[in-house]
UniProtKB/TrEMBL annotation:
InterPro entries: RNA_pol_sigma-70_dom, RNA_pol_sigma-B/F/G, RNA_pol_sigma70, RNA_pol_sigma70_r2, RNA_pol_sigma70_r3, RNA_pol_sigma70_r4, RNA_pol_sigma_r2, RNA_pol_sigma_r3/r4-like. GO terms for molecular function: DNA binding; sigma factor activity. SUPFAM superfamilies: Sigma2 domain of RNA polymerase sigma factors (SSF88946), Sigma3 and sigma4 domains of RNA polymerase sigma factors (SSF88659). One of its GO terms (biological process) is DNA-templated transcription initiation. It comes from the Bacteria. Keywords: DNA-binding, Sigma factor, Transcription, Transcription regulation. The keyword Ribonucleoprotein does not apply. Residues 46-115, 125-186, 212-260 form the RNA polymerase sigma-70 region domain. The keyword DNA-binding applies. This is SigB/SigF/SigG family RNA polymerase sigma factor.
Length: 271
């Protein structure tokens, strides 16, 4: 299901309730000082609940020549980091925050050994499809295509397109002696190993934005989604929902102001 479809559903699902329960568990954890018996008990409860997540993510790398138990231990390091850093006050689901942290730890484990990680075949195929679509659309439009345009051209869901682009970049293989970039004069990729993964901030921001959008009134949420996910103009939105363009403009401005307050500024992605 797409982000847009998720947010258009008003009814709370079992997953929503489970996410709320997990947030409450973290709030209880934060009430106790580190080392308190109850702190240890709640922490262990969290680890036990998310052990299947670690096992599942580690299983994705089962064919890389590493023992399953070793990969799970590396994944547990990522889970510990996620538990330590997670802020339940942001209102985002813990699993959405923990998953990239755990995957990042496992991928770092391979990178530290100089092993290349190949993307899944489905990602490779979609990347090739998107590269061709990007070339066609760039020539036709005279500019780089948007994600929504790539999705429409390929018949794919926008979420699939975003995932393929992000995964393709994450899986790029480079020599550790290769310069890190034009602005990183004198630095090689090997020098950057172990640095904090700034893309985790992007994931956290996206989850926070999704939660903030879900809290908007249904009409305002629909306007925001149509404008930014559906690439509709304000006039088109006004016609679709039966109000004036001026009213759409006011509702959109008010909604965006609310989102800025709840989410804050978008994290820098280096682009």
């Amino acid at each position: 299901m797409t982000l847009t479809a998720d947010l258009l559903v008003d009814e709370r699902t079992a997953d929503d309730r489970a996410a709320d329960d997990q947030l409450e568990l973290f709030r209880r954890l934060r009430r106790y000082p580190e080392g308190h018996p109850e702190w240890w008990r709640i922490r262990e409860e969290i680890f036990q609940q998310y052990l299947p997540l670690v096992r599942g993510l580690a299983g994705r790398f089962a064919q890389r020549g590493e023992l399953k138990e070793d990969l799970q231990q590396v994944g547990m390091v990522g889970l510990v980091k996620a538990v330590n850093r997670f802020d339940p006050g942001r209102g985002i689901p813990f699993e959405g925050y923990a998953t990239p942290t755990i995957l990042g730890e496992i991928k770092r484990h391979f990178r530290d050994r100089g092993w290349a990680i190949r993307p899944p075949r489905t990602i490779q195929e979609l990347r090739n499809e998107l590269n061709k679509a990007r070339a066609d659309l760039t020539q036709r439009l005279g500019r780089s295509p948007r994600v929504s345009e790539l999705a429409e051209h390929t018949g794919r869901d926008p979420e699939e397109v975003i995932e393929a682009i992000a995964a393709g970049e994450a899986y790029q293989t480079r020599s550790f002696d290769q310069p890190a970039g034009e602005e990183d004069e004198g630095l090689a990729y090997a020098d950057l190993l172990g640095y904090e993964d700034e893309q985790l901030n992007v994931v956290e921001y996206r989850e926070a934005l999704k939660a903030a959008l879900a809290r908007l009134p249904a009409r305002e949420r629909r306007i925001v989604l149509l404008r930014f996910y559906g690439n509709r103009t304000q006039s088109q939105i006004a016609e679709e929902i039966g109000v004036s363009q001026m009213h759409v403009s006011r509702l959109l401005s008010r909604s965006l102001a609310q989102l800025r307050v709840e989410v804050g500024a978008a994290p820098a992605t280096g682009r």
